[in-house]
Amino acid sequence: MVALKPTPSKYMPLDGANSVSQAMRQIDPDVVAAYPITPQTAVVQNFSQYVADGIVHTEFVPVESEHAAMSACVGASAAGARVMTATSANGLALMWEMLYIASGMRLPIVLTVVNRALSSPLNIHCDHSDSMGARDSGWIQLYAETGQEAYDNTLQAMRIAEHPDLLTPVMSCQDGFITGHGVERVGLLPDDVVKEFVGCYSPKASLLDVDNPTTMGAWDFTDYYFEHKRQQSEAINNAMPIIEAVSDEYAKLSGRPQPILDMYGMDDAEYVIVVLSSTAGTSRAVARELRAKGQKVGVLKPRVFRPFPSAQIAEALKGRKAVAVLDRAISFGAPQGMGPLFTEITSALYNEGVSGLKIVNYIYGLGGRDTLPAHIESAYADLEQVSDAGDGGRKVRYLGLREA
Amino acid sequence: MAERIRVNLRDIINNEDRLAPGHRLCAGCAEPTVVRQILHAIDEPVVIATATGCMEVSTTVYPFTAWRTPWVHSAFENAATTISGVEAAYKALQRAGKIPEDQVIKFLAIGGDGASYDIGFQFISGALERGHKFVYVCLNNEAYMNTGIQRSGATPRGAHTTTSPVGEVIQGKTQWRKPFTKIMAAHDIPYVAQTSPHNYRDLMMKAKKAFAADGPAVLNVLAPCPRGWRHGSDETMSVAKLAADTCYWPLYEVENGGDGHIATTVNYKPREKLPVSEWFKTQGRFRHLFRPANAGLLEEIQAKIDQEWEQLLKDEACSAQ
Description:
The complex is a heterodimer of chains A (about 400) and B (about 325).
Chain A: E1 10-15, H1 16-27, E2 31-34, H2 41-52, E3 59-62, H3 66-78, E4 83-87, H4 89-94, H5 96-104, E5 110-115, H6 129-133, E6 140-143, H7 147-162, E7 170-175, E8 183-188, H8 191-198, E9 215-216, H9 225-237, H10 239-254, E10 261-264, E11 271-274, H11 279-292, E12 297-302, E13 304-306, H12 310-317, E14 322-327, H13 340-351, E15 359-364, H14 373-389, E16 396-399
Parallel strand pairs in A: 2-3, 2-4, 4-5, 5-7, 6-7, 11-12, 11-14, 14-15, 15-16
Antiparallel strand pairs in A: 1-8, 6-13, 10-12
Helix pairs in contact in A: 1-2, 1-7, 3-5, 7-10, 11-14, 12-13
Chain B: H1 9-14, H2 31-40, E1 46-50, H3 54-59, E2 71-72, H4 79-95, E3 106-112, H5 113-118, H6 121-130, E4 135-140, H7 180-185, E5 191-195, H8 200-212, E6 217-222, H9 226-229, H10 236-245, E7 252-256, E8 262-266, H11 276-280, H12 295-320
Parallel strand pairs in B: 1-2, 1-3, 3-4, 4-6, 5-6
Antiparallel strand pairs in B: 5-7, 7-8
Helix pairs in contact in B: 2-8, 4-6
């Protein structure tokens, strides 16, 4: 049921991690299995308190590693439970094997990733190397700019994952420390409204349906594996209309727009920055100032990375004078050391038949390096040069990096 | 001491096998016999998580399954964790009223010795510490048989495997096997036992106790492998019996009543304890131990087995006091 007019949210000061804990409290999942890791810890720490206080009915499984966290989630989800967990960086890396197993078994688990740099060297601060490394693991990926978006995305993630035509796990990402530990004004929907929005999860098959025994996770040989993987690929490729429908419903419910691509200044922008997550905020602030001075600049922030909104992004970038794609991760060994967002976008442009667009890649903010308004300004300034004189063969540039 | 639990052969014959025939395990493999004995020991519905390995790949070749009971496989190392997730779901869904309160379901995790002694060791330990109510069964054939006979932490000293081969300078595995059953018992869980399928009464009695325990329980079950051990496929049960008769594989249990009293019971004491060489003789993997140059090694192994057996008897005597 869709509310006719938006339900007012109750606003409170929350950090990004706590806004996810609040969403989890309202979803009241059957099972949460998790392991602490900075900067995700706050998510499960807050949630554990809800368990201890009896506010949720959740069975909390305090496992001995992240691999075990995802393993327990797989077991619980196969048993028909609504399941959530959270992790960061090395924890996500340790889950790797199970990420593919969860998506291959089509288990609708929701995983919050509080993005953090992968070792080595050890670093606890934000970049996207963790979730970007998992981009081909068959999970839907949402990226939040703010604590508000992290809250909103978490609620939508549950509905998207459990959609009967999709049954695919969702990774809901936010920037470690910047968003995760940053306190901001976050609007929470009333508990009963969330309860109605997420509804009940009733899987077709469950291990606990002992009268109808099911074998799950069977051995798949050369005669079936290929077809099963094709089906999985089809499901995630067809996920966008489902994501859009859930987003629209949630937007109507909350009064907060939930675009797949968040656009700023894009009606007339000649120079565009494409960026995920919190740095979109910094970019928008810079763009606002430059636009006040008459410069035609814009910001494009994809909220969904998997499935990749290929056609939408190509359409949005077509005809611009120059585009800068900001990546908070390196795809090591990619041409010139490009980032994953850039390679996806250039691939999308080719596939959608958009040619001749002047587009460069900036690697920024690795290991939590601050990205300042001045860095964004310099990128916009570069774009004018790129537009006039080309990129000079330098596709990949860096923001905020000391070079000898 | 615990009450005597009866195992009735007529009941076993009349009950349907929850592991159906037609699976693809080798002729003479002990594993399906062990699993059937365990499943016949209880009447309640049971959900099974199986680690990657022979049992898993041979019983669930898509689109077929040999399981007449809910069954899940996710990975190699995590059967104990997968079943803890299932058990957690059971508790939560019962709390939510989605499963009737009186609906009893048992939970069983099965892994080979590689999955138990080695790659899944931490996962089992974690699940035991968290106290999930489930039974963990190690189908112990003392090597990685599914990948073609590689040494594991369960492989006994001196055994030939493809990664502990007999060569000019090295005579099979150089290390002792890991004392897995003792380490499991050291978790102070309600029930841990070591058993073998040649003695079906012992195995089924232990399975009943394990499922009845108020918390996690572990069964370490010897599972002879004709391919890996190099014995005839018709000799599986006699080979298993010799392991008990030589005290190479003592049948014993460790019960923790929760009152601080932990009781070790040795369930089978051979009338005449045979030398371990009698057991070794039955299997090609130990053939090289009978070369004159390896006489010292054989003596060393016998001494170790004697010492472990004596210690076990002492533990039993101690806990009886």
